[in-house]
Amino acid sequence: MTATAPPVLDEPAVGAYDRPGPTQQPRPRRRPIAAFSAWVRAGGVATLVMFLPLLLTFGYFAWWPILKSLILAFQSTDLINEPTWVGLRNFERVLADPLLWTAAGNTVWFAVLALLIGFPLPILMAMVMAELRRTRQISSVLVYLPVIIPPVVSVLLWKQFYDPSASGLFNTVLGWFGLGPVGWLQDPALAMPSIVIQATWATAGTATIIYLAALMSIQAELYDAAEVDGASILQRTWHVTLPQLRSVILLMLLLQIIGTMQVFTDPFVMTGGGPENRTVTLLMLVYNYAFLSGDFGKATALSLLLALVLSVVSAIYLRLTRKWSES
Predict the structure, then answer these.
(1) This prediction's pTM
(2) Cα 130 to Cα 140: distance, rounded to the nearest angstrom
(3) Which of 35, 201, 210, 247 is found 20 to 30 A from 179 (Cα to Cα)?
(4) Distance between CA 168 and CA 29 in Å, rounded?
């Protein structure tokens, strides 16, 4: 049996592969009229009609007051008489107020204490609740219960707890150990920490539920692998739990910074800014300008300054934490 030689293929001519092939023509851009017609045929008009009432309502009640405040900050008005244009005079008067820097320092001090006391607490409670099986739902309800209570009611309740007399709840507990009584809200050194403890109790439930939901989404295989490698509880928490909660922690930290810098109800109801202006905050100063002095232009100017500071802080925070949150 004779073997047949394989067929010889024709070799390409020299330079055949060097010739440029047909180039792909760029996709022509749609004309505006054609794009609009396609948007209409896709149901764009019906979608816009459905969302138009919502957009108008949101714009009127949310964005229109903001635009009005931008104008009001450059006017002198009591909202009764005709406003007069004063330019940057309101901002100059705000910055010249010596109480401004006291209020700014108190607000920053409140934010720092809230971060030290109130920020890690929801994470710890969520981790404990994640380990529960039968009582997780009941514990979730109990943790979130303070959030349901109206803020003013919560503050007034804790104000009774902080009663400086010996019959106050906390002073009664101290009396069991032969201590006290203590003027919780009357002592300049204790007033702000006392308010922070109350604010933490009233708001920690929301953050705890958010962290708990994030913990429930972590894959159990990660914990199983860490346990097989001999990792302890602290090691599993540090190397598995916290990295998985990284994005949630960063977001909650930013929201807490913004929220604590706008604190008003708790110090206003508890202490009214005392003692010795140790608990007066920036929003309380805005309230005093507007409703005690009747100078709404000055109050609006301080509000815009606070919004500007928070915007800058948020931008810097997001810039610094971008790589860490994505890694």
Answers:
(1) 0.80
(2) 10
(3) 201
(4) 75
CB neighbours of residue 127 within 10 Å: 18
R_g of the chain computed on alpha carbons: 31
Cα dihedral 71, 76, 78, 82 sign:
negative
- Nearest C-alpha neighbor of 139 from the set 150, 130, 147, 148: 130
pLDDT digits (tens, 9 = 90+) for 266-312: 999 999 998 999 999 999 999 999 999 888 999 999 999 999 999 99
Q: What is the DSSP letter of 84?
A: E
Q: Which fold has domain 89-326?
A: MetI-like fold (1.10.3720)
CA gap 208, 34 in Å, rounded: 51
Q: Do 300 and 289 contact (CB within 8 A), yes or no?
A: no
Q: What angle do CA 253, 269, 277 make, to 5 degrees?
A: 80
For 103-128, what is each residue's pLDDT tens digit?
999 999 999 999 999 999 999 999 88
Contact 191, 278 (CB under 8 A): yes
Under DSSP, the state recorded for 33 is: H
Which residue ranges make up each domain of the chain?
43-85, 89-326
Instruction: Report in angstroms the alpha-carbon separations of 41 from 51, 202, 295.
Output: 18, 51, 53
What is the Cα–Cα distance from 31 to 216, expressed in whole angstroms?
A: 49
Cα–Cα distance list, 6 to 3, 9, 11, 291 (Å): 9, 9, 15, 100
What tokens appear for 230 in the block?
A: 């001999």
